[in-house]
Every structure is written in structure tokens, then in C-alpha cells.
Design brief:
heterotrimer; A alpha+beta (about 150); B alpha/beta (about 425); C alpha/beta (about 850); A: Arc Repressor Mutant, subunit A; Glutaredoxin; 2 domains; 4-stranded mixed beta sheet; 7 helices; 4 strands; about 10% strand; B: about 425 residues; alpha/beta; Rossmann fold; Ubiquitin-like (UB roll); de novo design (two linked rop proteins); 3 domains; 5-stranded mixed beta sheet; 4-stranded parallel beta sheet; 14 helices; binds flavin mononucleotide; binds iron/sulfur cluster; binds FE2/S2 (inorganic) cluster
């Protein structure tokens, strides 16, 4: 079950759309913000609120990179390795993350602080390499700066 | 008076995020003009200006607006495609950061013209900060009556909402975007029926790119006549180019359509970093075929094509590679992107993009065999033209482009059983 | 898309050099198919939206720059299409190669081999040479579901399964999970399906990805011997089924048929529930109680014994002391003979059936008021409704394929209004009206008032005009506390302004505590709205048994007992005497009341299990125990058979021939596919008739039907060809029949608004079970495996007031007894109501209710005087 606050936030998004179905992505965002990830019962709760079939909701959630079906770390790190960032040797930063935080792509650090995704382009191609930590954009990364930046996330 | 509103990104440093600043620079003048002159005038101006969609396909915008305006079904919707997912592209982000009111004005013009009461900005999930910025900008506009019920006394209504995507490149494809907005898996729809008649909720819908909407106020401000004189005759107007990679000054450049590629790279971006030589350029985002240094004379607009490629301008994302870049690795990284982003609806793209990725990975690792180049070409050939939407085609076009232009590097990988550039950069 | 185009919708196009004219709008693939040009497909499925994903159907269209997916391309005038060129073959072979690169080559152990599209097309276009050097995707076969085996390695992502699940069945229980290459088809849980188990996905799958466990590794398509079409016997819809028989005469597989009724759909009961036929607990030999124990005897001994005991009781105490229960599971022929045995052989009018709980009263009042032809509405046409009102009925469980059609209507834009509880339409309703039980019928009356404010009744049916002039109704304002007047008015407006309205009702309406008034309100609504009327019969042949006079006051035909002409004709034909028309027969519950009082001494039960299925089942069981003679003719040792003096093993619907009349009043044939021990019901009865001195001598069930055709005005114009083969709709195509005669005078006492039955505490609503809907289902291993444990569902407020947490064991009690059931909390349920789910009668729930007999119809209406609830230990 979702906390009451999440339920009321989801209900508030309904007025934006002509039907409740369309509110699915915002509702999933809200649910994930409150629960941390999207386990089956959160999906079921969203489905019930929006009057959608459970399997439909799971199908949509699983289509998107931003929704997680398992808990993961406290912060989601998406390091871009797409072409422009690749040219700025972002793959070298993967090694830094592995060494310094024990972080591997697709996995969670042992201290449960971070989950790392080898990301696709995040549209910061002029200030490469770039990464998203939760909702924050960090650009022009170097081996030093990435360590320093991540150190700020507890 | 001010020149600011005649440009999409008037000031590369300043962000106009307060409505009074925008008004002071002459903002909403176009909307006021349209309110006086009526919807038909707006459509006529856009048609005369010759504006073509900036989302990649270059469809004539005036025809799209007219089609939605003519459809008698109600309600109608407008959707701004701000999903900007093409790797290397970040020009829409810049518009939203620096001059968001221009987009809102463009959307208000559209709502007034096609008689749509509700609009959505489908914003890519990876731009979380912009979500809040846009909500604020919309609230400011609504408070001042530039949108909302009977905005500016036009009798038209517009409620605007920001809808956040959640990380799926395919949701930038217009029909997939609409499916996604409807709360479904973002997979493209068959056409016909077309979005203009059967879009969001099955209703007439105007879907356009951020930059396209942003061009409309400019057309009305400077007049179709002057607008059409910018750029090339078949593709008039200013265009934003996102330049990244091994250039001295990467960034977004607002230049007339038809500007030669070499001018962008050498004049505006200061040439190649570290004084190295240029090896290759992807001219319009990873969906377009790669070019060699001897192709740089080509003009960047919707009509020019380079040998062997469909079109070059795409989303206007210029990615520049210097002599030290491994083309097999680059091809692999792009193939990996397409395999990751294939929605899975159609057979050739779902299976084929990943097959391409796997073969390229093998080659890059020095495990390629003689026959792989032929196999790769055949797999690409089997995808191209047979996939449901352009994503599958793009994956094939990209790979074939690398094979055509840099075949020798592939052969070197196979013969040498290793990457001559020392493996991944 | 618009009307202009529809006016001139003939399209001429050229396919493979030949010109064809087709009716548009139509896809190129279908245009070709109509002209016998077959284009290979994987993801195309008739009846649902085209998808265009597999890319097998690529064709070349002149003037188009790339190959086109013909399944999703609209045919247009002047189009020139090529469907088989070398270029197209190359493309199709390439698509097959893509499908095969991640497909295991396990054809030898795959049950689909032999009827697998991927296999067939690979043969047609030539297998690829195997140039995929990477590792294939692997995923272990999932056998976690009790009935559906899911093998995702074989899946080619045509998504037909998910689309039929969503678009046809309306269940949306499975979906594509993941994206791109990492997609698979999964139920919500990822393992168990927890779905409606309609089987549509299994039918749709072109490869071996979704398979029924029932035929796992024991079925090869090429081994099939004979094939039969028949009719499912689980409910009143009467879905067509297709049986494939092995060469050894056993059932190999059962799949839905493309009959006019179900058009390829089935529900879980039809698709999975048939395997009870080979249950080891089937009765095989006649049994007689000797020294308190049932012991096997020969047929000869059993029938002789039954005949002599019946005669003894008749001679000692008169026909009045004998009674019979007819069965909606049995055929027209069976029921006709049972009734003949009772009336002519034993001189008793005491014959009734479970149709008393629903269709008998509904059909008499609604059909009588509106005209019986008006109650004939076709299941498939439900999908074309513009508005649907379900009245205290959940068609998805009571008549599943009808329920699916309501969902289809909703998906095509119909307004669906669920009045009362209809969980099956949860995702397919525009408005829910759920007043408290005590007031619900009054709210329905208020709805009729609101409709009448907007729409004046048209049509000249005098009886309806008279009824509308005299029927008392509350106004929406009167019922404001029960249901806001705005809601009532809004729904009334929707209904009154829709062109094609359908009304659905079933047993809850027939058993309403508000009496015949509520049925009249329903009929009046149908009249004013000019609606199609769907009266749900829960048994497969309720109309048939009613037509055969298996009611205390009716004769076969049907004709009223008092119809002198009919009596003369029947007596002449049978060469026997009917009981006097003054002899008032006993109805269903009266039979048990009389048995309890010792007035009925002998009871003949055919294919019914009253000890389990009637309300106040404790009382019913006591009454059965008091009988001097209880004869039970059945296929299982039911709770009722346990009490019997004689048990006669019968055959199931799949082992014999005969005729049913479904809820559409369509004549449907059942056919013998497999053999079994036991005797067909009609033939047992035929022998008993003869033993009791009647002329019988029927050799085949058709002989019985020939006699029926002579007796019944509904059937008299039938030809042999109508009976089986072509389905025959009746009396839609015929007159109104004798039973149309309904005397409005008799209904006069019920025209006033009935008083509100005050009760305190909460309401208890029984949800109808989709899977275990009766005694036979309880012998289906498959249905037992998917049925869920019964739950008491309630909202948070109610749970809080009793301090109940989810999973608590609750004890509900009434003056009749107690039941234990687990709690489930669902915040979105209405207030003060407890829903008992999956209450197969086995949960014993019917013991807990008493009943009232509804005046006029004698339907038993469940009620309790006090309901309470305690937390378990
Ligand atoms: C795979 C794919 C991805 C696309 N992504 C985007 C995108 O991110 N932004 C965009 O504006 N258009 C994108 N498009 C193009 C849109 O489908 C559509 O043509 C465009 O939004 C129309 O707007 P316009 O007329 O203003 O160009 C994409 C197309 C494809 C096939
Ligand atoms: S080409 Fe096919 S699989 Fe790929 S994104 Fe388009 S529809 Fe989806
Ligand atoms: S049948 Fe046309 S694409 Fe599958």
C-alpha cells in the first residue's frame, strides 16, 4: 500500500489528463519516490488508484529505464557512456567508480549508497563526460571530480 | 526594437525565466498579432515562411497546423515533443533553459490557431530540473493570462502541462510518444490514421518539436517574408546545431539553415581539439550516416544528402571525431544504443539491432572473422526498410555508414585480431 | 472513417496481377484473404486491432518506396499489390531468421510441433543457415502456474497473447515486460497467471510458448482421430466447443469453436474444466442402499427396484407424495421424459428445478410483460451496444462470454453502468451504482422514474402501458440518501439518450427481497428504453427444461396446466392421463418443505445436488434424510447422492447426444465425443416410463426430440437440419407461444413500492465464483487448482470498526450457523458491505442463510435475520 501522501499526490495529477490512464507515468514517479523502487504491491496500488489492470502497469513500468523493480542503492548514478561522452573517455570513469566505490554497472555498491547504470545520452554533450545522480546533473567530470561529487551523496 | 526575440536563443549566457524580462524584450508580441489577425493568418504565415519541422523529419509545419485546424473533431490537443533523445542532441534543452517563454508563446499560438484546449510538453525524463522550471514558467504565463481560459481575450483556452518521460528514446517518436502519454508502453502506432486526425486519445493532435514551436513566434515577429530569406530556399529559417565531440568549442549554435558543415566545425567551433586532424563527423545525430573529412562541404539542410545516406541534418547534432578515434568502437557504441532503445515491437529491430551490436563487439574485441563484414551488411540490409519505425532503419543506416566509409578499419580489426587503437578509448 | 467514405466503400485493387473488388475499409491482407490469397502472418489475429510487428506479411505495393506490412495497410482503390516475389521471399526469410536466432531448436520435444507457424513457415521459406554465432537467449520454462506452461525461449513476441487478453477477453492479465530484446510475456506476478484462465492466449500463440498443462507431453496434433463440435455445459451461454478425439476414443483436446454464440471464445470452465469427465470419482455402476450402505447392483435390478418403489408410494399415498427435480445440465430430451414420467407415469405435478432460483420467474414476468421474443438477445450482439446496464449481476462470472462482450462494448465506446456489485467489469464500466442492499431495488425504481422524466414509452404493448400506469415508483429525490439524485439522473440520461441499450439481469433480480415489484421495474426499464434484454440462465439448458414443462404449473410446450387444448393434445399423444389441473404442484423449496413435513415421501433427483446448492442447505439436507425413497441420477457421488436409496450413473454432456436451449433461446446440439460407463439420462427415464406402463420405446435421443416437436408450439416447425449442425434460434424466428399469457391481475398485489427491509450492521454480498460454479466444477482438478481460497473483502472503515487486519480469520454467524473465512481489506470497496469471494458453495456459506419464497415466482430469496462477525482465534 502507498502512503496516504503518495495517494493524494497521485490523485492531484489526475486533473491534468482527460483519463486516469494517462496519469500512469507521473503516478509511477510518485510511487517510486515514496517507496524507493516499484515492488509489485506498489504497482498494484498504482493500478488500483488509476483503475488500470495490474499487468498493464507492470508492463509500462518495465519499459522505462527510470523505474526500478528492485531496491538498489540510496542514489541512482547514471553515467553517460554514449558517443560524445565516450570521446571524453567516460569509460575510464567506470574504472574509477569500480575502484573507489566498488560500483559496477547495473549493480549496487556494497554500502548500499549507489546503484550505477551505464547510461545513454543525457543531453549534456557539450560538457562531457556527464552523469545524473538522482535528479542532479553533473558535467565535465574528471577522475577527481567524480569522487568528490559522489562523496557529497550520503 | 530589441533583437532578442528575433532569435531562438538570444543570449548564450542569460536565461530568460522571468515573464517580465520576456515581455520587456518584446515577448508575446507575436501572440498579440495573431489574436488580432486570426488563425488563418497564422497558418498562412507559417506556410509562406516555409517552416519545416525541426524534430528530424522536416515535415512542412504549415501543412500540419492546417490539417489539425481543419479537423472538426473535438477536443483537440497539442503536444510539444521535448523528449530530445537522439545522442548528441541538446538544443531543445537549451531553448527550455534559456528562452522557455518562446516555446510557451509558440504553443499558445498553436492552441489558438488549431483550437486545441489542452497541451502537453512531453519532457524527457533525464531533464528533471527543467520539469520544475517549465511548471514555473507555465504558472507565470497562466497568471498573466497568456494561457488559460479565454487567454488574451482570444476566446481560445489553453491549459498546459508538463509530462515527464521516464527514459525511453523511442518515446520521442511521435506516435510512441502519444501512446506513452496515454499511459501505455511507448511503442509506435501504425499510420494512417495520422496524428493530426487521430492522436492523443484518438483526437486531432498537433505534435511538434520544441524548436519548431519556438520558430513560430519569430516568423510572426519578423514576417514570413524576411524569415524565408534566412537559410536555403527549401529549408528556410534559423537552425540550432548541437556540436559535441573533439572540437575546441562544443555547444549549441544558431545558424541559418544550409550552412556548410565545415563552417560549423572550423569557424564556429574553432576546429579540432589539440590541433589533431579530423577523421569523421556524424552530421545529424547517431541516426544519420557518418561522414569522412572529405564530405565536409555539404550544406546542412533537409534537402542535401550525402552519398549513400538518407539525409544528413537529422536533429542537427554534429558529433566530431578526431584521428585517434576507433570507428569500430564508435559504431559499436552506437549499435549498443539502438539495441538498448529498440522498443521490441517489430522483429527485425528487436532481434537485428542486438545482433549488429554483438557482431560489432566481437570485431572490436578482435574476435571477428572474415565473413563478418558481409554478415553485418546483410543483417543491416534485412532490417533497413523492413522495420516498423525509423529506429530500426537508423540502426542499419548508422552501421552501413561506418562500413562504407571506414571499411578498412573493420578489416584491420579482423586481420590484426585486435583493435589498432588499443581497444576502447 | 467517416460516413461519406462508407457510402461508396467498394475498392478495386490488383493483387498478383488479378483485379479484385472488396468491401472497405479493409486491410490489404484481409482483402487478399477474402480472395483466397494467403499471406503469411505471425502477429495478425482476426477480430483484434492489427499490430504490424512480426513483419512476415510484407508485400510490395506499387508506388510505395518500401515493402509494406499488409496486415496494417488499408486497401485503397487502384492499389497494385504483389504478395510473392523473390524480393518478398528474401525479406520473409530474413524475418524468420531473426525469429530463429534466439529460438531454441527443441522442436522434437515441443508439443506445438506439427501445428507451429514458425516451423511451417521455415519449411515454406527455407531454414536459415545458422550464421548466428552469439549465445542464444535462455530462460527456463516456467511451470509455476497450475495450468499454463510458459516458455519464453520460444516466444517470437508477436504479442497476440497479450492483445487477445486485453482486447478480446478484456482481462489484461498478461503483458509484455521489459523492452527490446529483453522482453518477455508475463503475468503480473511473474510466475502464476492469476488470470481468468480463458485460454485465449494459448489458442492465439503461434509457437510453443504458452501451452496448456492439461495436454502437456501427451498430445501430438497428427495423432488426432475424429473431431466433433459440441456445446459447453457449464452455463447458459452455450459456447461451441470443438473436441479432438484420439484414435483410442479418448479426448485429446478441447478448443473453442467458431460458433455463432462464442465466436472462438471460452471461459476457464469451458477451456480447462472439462477433465472431470475422466475423474476417477465418476459413478460407474448403479447402487442400491442395502443395510444402510450403497452397494453396486445391475442396471436391471436398479431400474426394477426404482419402478416398483415409485409405484408403491404412488399407490399408497398418491402422486402428490412424489416429486422430482429436473436439471438444467440435462438435455431437452431428458427433461421432457422426466416430466412425462412424473405427470403421466406417477400422476404428480411436483416437478421443478434450480431454474426456480432465476430464469423461471424472470422469464415468466419479463417475457410475459414484454413478449417472449423481446427476451431473445444474442450474446455476440452485446458488443454492439451503446449503453449497457447490469442489474445486480456480474455477467463475467455468471455468463462469462456475455461478460466479455460487455467489455468489448465498453472498449468500443459504450457506456457501461454496473448497478450493484460486478467485480468482473471493474475495468470496463463508466459508472457504478452500488446502493446498500436494503435499498437497492428502490434505487432501481428511482432510476426508472428518472428515465421516464426524459423518455416517454413508445410502442403499443397494452400490458406495458397498463403496468406503467399503475406501478408505483419512488423519485430520485425520495432515494437521495441511498444514492445522490444527480447520479441517478445522469445515468438515466445516458440510458435514455443511447440508441442501442442492453439490460442484463440474473438470479439476484429473480431472488430479490423486494419481490415481483423489482422484476416489473426491470421489465419497465427495458420497455421504456427499448432495450435488448439479457436474462442470464446459470445452467446450460434452463430455457429447455422450462419449455419442457418442468415447472409445477406448466405442461411441455410450454403450455399452462389449465390449457384444455394442450392437455387434450398431450393426453392423446401420450395415450395417458395428466394429473388434474386443480392439482397444484409443488415448487422447488415447497418440495423440501413437504418432504420435511412427511408429505412428500419419494423424490427423483436428476443431475442436481440440492444438499449443496440450495439456500438453508442444512434444512434441505434434513428434509432429504426423511424421505422414504430418494433416487439420484448423476455422474458423481454428490452430497445428495450420499443420502440416496438408489444412485443411477449417468453420462456427461460429452458422452452423449441431445439438445440444449441457451440463454439466447437458441437450440444447440451436444454430441457424443467419447465413451463412458453409465446410461444416458433419457434412456434411463425411457425404461422407467415403460416400467410404469407408458408408451415409450425410444431408441435414440432423436426419437424423443421428434415427440417434442409434436408437443411444443416452439419446436413444431423445426426440421431435422435445424436441430444439429445449423443452430436454430427460437422463438426469435417464431411466435410468442402459449406461455406469453400473463395475467396482469395476478401481479396487481405487487404494484406498490415494497417496504425497505431494515437490517442492522453490514451487508453480505456473495460474489459469484468464476471457476467453481457448481458441483461438476468441484470435480475438475484443473478448476480446483486455480480457484482461490474464499475471502471476506471489506473496506478499511469496516475493518477498522471491527479491528480486523488483513489475513485475520473471521467468523460470520447468523441464526443458522457460522462460517470461517479470511479477511482481505480493499480500501476502494463501498461502506458497510462484506464481499465473500469465491464462495463455492463448498465454503458452506449457503447453510448460513435462510430463505423467503418470493411471492408469485416462488424463488427462494436468501436472507438472515441477524448477521454478526467475530474475529477468529
Ligand atoms: C526513433 C525516433 C526518435 C525520435 N525522437 C525525437 C525526439 O526526441 N524529439 C523530436 O522532436 N522528434 C523526435 N522524433 C521525430 C518525431 O517522430 C516527429 O517527427 C517530430 O516530433 C515531429 O515534430 P516536427 O514536425 O516539429 O519535426 C523521433 C523519431 C524517431 C523515429
Ligand atoms: S523499429 Fe520496430 S522494434 Fe524498433 S523501435 Fe521501431 S517499432 Fe520498435
Ligand atoms: S502479420 Fe503483419 S506484421 Fe505481423
Amino acid at each position: 500500500m502507498l502512503p496516504a501522501e503518495a495517494v493524494s499526490q497521485i490523485n492531484n495529477t489526475l486533473e491534468k489528463y482527460p483519463d486516469s490512464r494517462s496519469a500512469l507515468l507521473p503516478a509511477l514517479y510518485i510511487a517510486q519516490r515514496h517507496v524507493g523502487h516499484l515492488p509489485l504491491d506498489a504497482l498494484h496500488a498504482v493500478a488500483t488508484l488509476l483503475d488500470l489492470p495490474d499487468a498493464h502497469v507492470r508492463g509500462v513500468a518495465s519499459f522505462h529505464v527510470m523505474f526500478r523493480d528492485s531496491p538498489g542503492g540510496r542514489h541512482l548514478v547514471q553515467l553517460c557512456t554514449n558517443v560524445s561522452c565516450m570521446l571524453a573517455a567516460s569509460s575510464g570513469l567506470l574504472d574509477v567508480l569500480k575502484e573507489h566505490f566498488g560500483l559496477r554497472p547495473g549493480a549496487t555498491s556494497p554500502d548500499n549508497r549507489f546503484t550505477l547504470l551505464e547510461g545513454e545520452c543525457i543531453g549534456e554533450c557539450e560538457k562531457v563526460p556527464a552523469m545524473l545522480v538522482d535528479s542532479d546533473v553533473h558535467t565535465g567530470l574528471t577522475a577527481e571530480s567524480i569522487i568528490e561529487i559522489l562523496a557529497r551523496y550520503e | 526594437m530589441s533583437k532578442l526575440i528575433d532569435r531562438i536563443i538570444p543570449d548564450p549566457v542569460r536565461c530568460i525565466t522571468g515573464i517580465s524580462a520576456y515581455e520587456a524584450e518584446g515577448g508575446f508580441r507575436a501572440l498579440k498579432k495573431a489574436a488580432r489577425a486570426g488563425p488563418d493568418f497564422v497558418i498562412e504565415e507559417i506556410v509562406r515562411a516555409g517552416l519545416r519541422g525541426r524534430g528530424g523529419a522536416g515535415f512542412p509545419t504549415g501543412r500540419k497546423w492546417a490539417a489539425v485546424a481543419e479537423d472538426t473533431a473535438t477536443p483537440k490537443y497539442i503536444i510539444c515533443n521535448a523528449d530530445e533523445g537522439e545522442p548528441g542532441t541538446f538544443k531543445d534543452r537549451l531553448i527550455l533553459e534559456k528562452n522557455p517563454f518562446l516555446l510557451i508563446e509558440g504553443m499558445a499560438l498553436a492552441a489558438f490557431t488549431v483550437k486545441a484546449g489542452v497541451g502537453y510538453i512531453y519532457l524527457r525524463g533525464e531533464y528533471p530540473a527543467l520539469f520544475h522550471l517549465l511548471e514555473d514558467v507555465i504558472a507565470q504565463c497562466r497568471k498573466k493570462g497568456y494561457i488559460g481560459p479565454d487567454f488574451m481575450g482570444t476566446g481560445a483556452d489553453l491549459e498546459l502541462y508538463v509530462h515527464r518521460g521516464a527514459g525511453a528514446y523511442i518515446c520521442g517518436e511521435e506516435t510512441a510518444m502519444i501512446e506513452s502519454l496515454e499511459g501505455k508502453r511507448g511503442q509506435p502506432r501504425s499510420r494512417p490514421p495520422y496524428t493530426v486526425n487521430y492522436g492523443y486519445m484518438g483526437k486531432p493532435t498537433l505534435a511538434s518539436n520544441v524548436e519548431t514551436f519556438a520558430n513560430v513566434p519569430i516568423i510572426l515577429n519578423i514576417g514570413a517574408e524576411s524569415y524565408s530569406k534566412i537559410g536555403s530556399p527549401e529549408s528556410p529559417g534559423p537552425k540550432l546545431f548541437s556540436v559535441s565531440g573533439d572540437v575546441v568549442r562544443p555547444g549549441v549554435y544558431e545558424l541559418p539553415m544550409g550552412v556548410p558543415l565545415s563552417e560549423i566545425i572550423y569557424e564556429h567551433c574553432g576546429g579540432i581539439k589539440g590541433g589533431r586532424a579530423l577523421k569523421a563527423v556524424i552530421p545529424g545525430g547517431v541516426s544519420t550516416a557518418v561522414l569522412r573529412s572529405d564530405d565536409l562541404a555539404c550544406r546542412m539542410d533537409f534537402t542535401s544528402k550525402c552519398e549513400g545516406s538518407m539525409g544528413i541534418i537529422g536533429s542537427g547534432a554534429v558529433i566530431v571525431f578526431d584521428e585517434e578515434t576507433c570507428m569500430v568502437h564508435t559504431a559499436y557504441r552506437i549499435a549498443k544504443f539502438f539495441a538498448h532503445e529498440s522498443c521490441g515491437k517489430c522483429t527485425p529491430c528487436r532481434e537485428g539491432t542486438d545482433w549488429i551490436r554483438a557482431i560489432l563487439l566481437r570485431m572490436e574485441q578482435g574476435l571477428g572473422v572474415e565473413d563478418d563484414i558481409r554478415l553485418l551488411r546483410e543483417v543491416c540490409g534485412n532490417i533497413a526498410g523492413n522495420s516498423f519505425c525509423a529506429l530500426g532503419d537508423s540502426a542499419a543506416i548508422s552501421t552501413i555508414g561506418f562500413l562504407d566509409k571506414f571499411g578498412d578499419e573493420f578489416e584491420a580489426h579482423i586481420k590484426g585480431k585486435t583493435c589498432p587503437f588499443g581497444g576502447p578509448v | 472513417m467517416n460516413n461519406m467514405n462508407n457510402m461508396k466503400n467498394m475498392i478495386t485493387l490488383t493483387i498478383n496481377g488479378k483485379k479484385f473488388e472488396v468491401k472497405g475499409p479493409v486491410k490489404v491482407l484481409e482483402a487478399a484473404l477474402q480472395n483466397n490469397i494467403h499471406i503469411p502472418t505471425m502477429c495478425y489475429y482476426p477480430k483484434i486491432e492489427s499490430f504490424g510487428g512480426c513483419r512476415m506479411c510484407l508485400v510490395r505495393v506499387e508506388g510505395m518506396y518500401r515493402l509494406q506490412a499488409s496486415c496494417s495497410l488499408n486497401a485503397e482503390d487502384g492499389m497494385v499489390v504483389e504478395t510473392e516475389t523473390p524480393e518478398i521471399h528474401v525479406a520473409r526469410k530474413a524475418m524468420l531468421e531473426f525469429m530463429l536466432i534466439n529460438h531454441p531448436l527443441d522442436c522434437p520435444t515441443c508439443d506445438k510441433a506439427g501445428e507451429c507457424d514458425l516451423q511451417d513457415f521455415s519449411v515454406l521459406y527455407g531454414a536459415a543457415e545458422g550464421r548466428f554465432h552469439e549465445r542464444k537467449r535462455t530462460e527456463p520454462e516456467s511451470t509455476k502456474d497450475p495450468l499454463i506452461v510458459r516458455n519464453m525461449e520460444r516466444c517470437i513476441m508477436c504479442t497476440k497473447c497479450t492483445r487477445v487478453c486485453a482486447e478480446l477477453q478484456g482481462a489484461s492479465a498478461i503483458n509484455v515486460i521489459g523492452r527490446g530484446k529483453h522482453t518477455s510475456i508475463e503475468p503480473f506476478s511473474g510466475s502464476k497467471f492469476d488470470c481468468e484462465y480463458c485460454g485465449a492466449c494459448i489458442i492465439a500463440c503461434p509457437v510453443g510458448s504458452l501451452m496448456s498443462k492439461l495436454h502437456r507431453h501427451n498430445y501430438r496434433p497428427w495423432d488426432t482421430g475424429e473431431q466433433f463440435d459440441s456445446t459447453c455445459s457449464y452455463c447458459g451461454v452455450g459456447c461451441g466447443i470443438h473436441m479432438q478425439i484420439r484414435e483410442d476414443g479418448t479426448l485429446q483436446r478441447l478448443i473453442p469453436a467458431e460458433s455463432e454464440v462464442n465466436q472462438g471464445l471460452l471461459c476457464a470452465r469451458g477451456f480447462f474444466g472439462y477433465e472431470y469427465i475422466s475423474s476417477p470419482s465418476r459413478l460407474t455402476s448403479p447402487l442400491i442402499r442395502k443395510d444402510g450402505k450403497l452397494v453396486p447392483v445391475s442396471w436391471q435390478e436398479a431400474l426394477k427396484y426404482v419402478a416398483s418403489r415409485l409405484k408403491e408410494i404412488r399407490d399408497a399415498s398418491g402422486g402428490k407424495s412424489l416429486a422430482a427435480l429436473a436439471s438444467p445440465k440435462c438435455t431437452i430430451e431428458d427433461n421432457y421424459l422426466l416430466q412425462k414420467l412424473m405427470r403421466a407415469g406417477l400422476g404428480s405435478n411436483n416437478i421443478d428445478s434450480s431454474a426456480r432460483m432465476g430464469l423461471a420467474g424472470l422469464r415468466r414476468i419479463v417475457g410475459g410483460l414484454l413478449g417472449h421474443a423481446r427476451t431473445v438477445s444474442y450474446v455476440s450482439e452485446m458488443a454492439q451496444s451503446d449503453a449497457v446496464l447490469t442489474v445486480c449481476s456480474d455477467p463475467v462470472t455468471e455468463a462469462p462470454v456475455l461478460g466479455v462482450r460487455v467489455r468489448n462494448a465498453y472498449d468500443s465506446g459504450a457506456a457501461v453502468i454496473t448497478f450493484g456489485h460486478a467485480p468482473g467489469l471493474r475495468h470496463h464500466r463508466s459508472v457504478t451504482m452500488q446502493p446498500r442492499l436494503k435499498e437497492q431495488w428502490h434505487v432501481l425504481g428511482a432510476l426508472l422514474s428518472a428515465v421516464l422524466e426524459i423518455k416517454k414509452p413508445s410502442g403499443s404493448r397494452e400490458m406495458m402501458q397498463e403496468l406503467l400506469g399503475t406501478l408505483m415508483l419512488p423519485t430520485p429525490e425520495d432515494m437521495d440518501d441511498a444514492m445522490p439524485r444527480e447520479v441517478v439522473r445522469k445515468v438515466a440520461e445516458t440510458l435514455a439518450t443511447s440508441a442501442n441499450v442492453s439490460l442484463v439481469a440474473g438470479r439476484e433480480l429473480a431472488c430479490s427481497l423486494a419481490g415481483p415489484w423489482s422484476i416489473m421495474v426491470f421489465a419497465a426499464l427495458a420497455h421504456v428504453l427499448e432495450a435488448k434484454v439479457y436474462l442470464i440462465s446459470e445452467g446450460p439448458n434452463e430455457h429447455g427444461l422450462l419449455d419442457m414443462g418442468c415447472e409445477p404449473d406448466m405442461l411441455p410446450g410450454p403450455a399452462p396446466m389449465t390449457d384444455a387444448g394442450a392437455r387434450r393434445m398431450i393426453e392423446g399423444l401420450w395415450d395417458a392421463r395428466l394429473p388434474s389441473e386443480k392439482e397444484k404442484g409443488l415448487s422447488l423449496m415447497e418440495i423440501f418443505e413437504a418432504a420435511g413435513a412427511g408429505d412428500v415421501k419419494g423424490l427423483y433427483v436428476m443431475g442436481e445436488n440440492p444438499a449443496r446448492s440450495l439456500p438453508d442447505s442444512g434444512f434441505v439436507t434434513d428434509a432429504l434424510a426423511k424421505l422414504d425413497l430418494l433416487v439420484v441420477q448423476d455422474i458423481f457421488m454428490t452430497e445428495t447422492a450420499e443420502l440416496a436409496h438408489v444412485v443411477l450413473p449417468a453420462k456427461t454432456w460429452i458422452e452423449r447426444k441431445g439438445t440444449y436451449i441457451n440463454m439466447e433461446r437458441r437450440l444447440l446440439g451436444i454430441d457424443a465425443g467419447v465413451g463412458a460407463e453409465g446410461k444416458e439420462d433419457w434412456s434411463i427415464l425411457s425404461e422407467l416410463c415403460e416400467a410404469l406402463g407408458l408408451k415409450a420405446g425410444y431408441k435414440r435421443s432423436d426419437d424423443v426430440f421428434s415427440e417434442v416437436m409434436k408437443v411444443s408450439p416452439y419446436y413444431c416447425e423445426l426440421h431435422a437440419s435445424n436441430i444439429r449442425g445449423e443452430t436454430c434460434k427460437w422463438p426469435a424466428e417464431g411466435g410468442d407461444g402459449h406461455e406469453a399469457i400473463l395475467d396482469l391481475k395476478a401481479l396487481r398485489p405487487y404494484l406498490d413500492i415494497p417496504p425497505v427491509v431494515e437490517g442492522d450492521g453490514f451487508d453480505i454480498v456473495l460474489e459469484k465464483p468464476l471457476f467453481l460454479n457448481g458441483t461438476t466444477a468441484l470435480h475438475s482438478d484443473a478448476l480446483l487448482r486455480i480457484s482461490k481460497e474464499p475471502l471476506a473483502r471489506m473496506n478499511t472503515a469496516l475493518a477498522d470498526s471491527y479491528k480486523i487486519r488483513p489475513g485475520d480469520t473471521l467468523r460470520f454467524f447468523s441464526e443458522r450457523g457460522e462460517i470461517e473465512i479470511k479477511a482481505h481489506i480493499d480500501p476502494y470497496l463501498p461502506d458497510n458491505t462484506v464481499y465473500l469471494t469465491d464462495t463455492q458453495e463448498s465454503a458452506g456459506i449457503l447453510k448460513y442463510f435462510r430463505y423467503n419464497k418470493m411471492p408469485f415466482t416462488n424463488a427462494p430469496c436468501k436472507y438472515t435475520q441477524k448477521t454478526g462477525l467475530k474475529r477468529g482465534e
